[in-house]
Amino acid sequence: MDTILRTDMPQLNFIGSGKVRDIYDLGDQMLIVTTDRISAFDVVLPNGIPGKGKVLTKLSKFWFENTADIVENHLLTTEVDEMPEICREYRSQLEGRSMLVKKAKPFPFECVVRGYITGSGWKDYKSTGEICGIKLPAGLLESQKFETPLFTPATKAEVGDHDENVSFERMASDLGRKDAEELKRLTVAVYERARDIADAKGIIIADTKLEFGMYGGKIILIDEVLTPDSSRFWKKASYQAGKPQDSMDKQYVRDYLETLDWNKTAPGPKLPDDVARKTSEIYHGIMDILMK
């Protein structure tokens, strides 16, 4: 299985890279190519995950289609033949891992929704009794389900920097309360739709992060949606509150990295071949379950 870490398309107007995606400006549209790079603790690791970019693209398309009645999104097509002709010369780099999208102006926050207490939320709760300024009841168990999902925004980090969890009030102060309230509403609505779809297939979506932008005076859903890079997926059959869960997502990589003597700053360590291969199997596995 081919692994693409960087795209090379000199006839297209390259405008930058995120942790995973390479972005090209096509005038009034953008081309987003999802590589096989993987980041953990906001550091891009030196080697990639075979086929990962194609999994993220397929799953994002699936969720864009299944939430389009809730919120408009930026996706125009994932088919190379439907993209501008200049793209077709690079079919080998684009097939299955690229999206032609509307050119939206992103909001400077990640919109995180938590259905269960885990990850950084669990760490914050143990030390402060709160998550992102939200006071929670005493005695919650690790991986316990919240009665209602929590909206906990974060600032978006540049490559090499760390995302910062912030309060909703901080977000409202920066964006204005009207937009902040709408982002919260849309984030929870998308999560609840996906949660119910996944539940019917035996999967718990513990949490996820979404990104939105402004396009034509409206808020639209952008970037990726409900992938194993941006979400925590657990199997319902083995779920048990009070302990960590076996995840079908990037947590497998994080767990491996936690065993190393690494300070979680760049440069990141190279993943062993068996860890990269197992991660690829996990990503393909959750895609197959969710899209069946």
TrEMBL record:
Matches recorded under Pfam families: SAICAR_synt
Boundaries of every SAICAR synthetase/ADE2 N-terminal domain copy: 16-266
Reaction(s) this enzyme catalyzes, per UniProt: 5-amino-1-(5-phospho-D-ribosyl)imidazole-4-carboxylate + L-aspartate + ATP = (2S)-2-[5-amino-1-(5-phospho-beta-D-ribosyl)imidazole-4-carboxamido]succinate + ADP + phosphate + 2 H(+)
GO cellular component, one term: cytoplasm
InterPro entries, sorted: SAICAR_synt/ADE2_N, SAICAR_synth, SAICAR_synthetase_CS
Domain of life: Bacteria
Enzyme nomenclature, EC number: 6.3.2.6
Keywords, sorted A to Z: ATP-binding, Ligase, Nucleotide-binding, Purine biosynthesis
GO MF annotation, one: phosphoribosylaminoimidazolesuccinocarboxamide synthase activity
Pathway: Purine metabolism; IMP biosynthesis via de novo pathway; 5-amino-1-(5-phospho-D-ribosyl)imidazole-4-carboxamide from 5-amino-1-(5-phospho-D-ribosyl)imidazole-4-carboxylate: step 1/2
Biological processes, Gene Ontology terms: 'de novo' IMP biosynthetic process
Family the entry assigns: Belongs to the SAICAR synthetase family.
Protein name as annotated: Phosphoribosylaminoimidazole-succinocarboxamide synthase
Protein's organism: Geovibrio thiophilus
Name of the encoding gene: purC
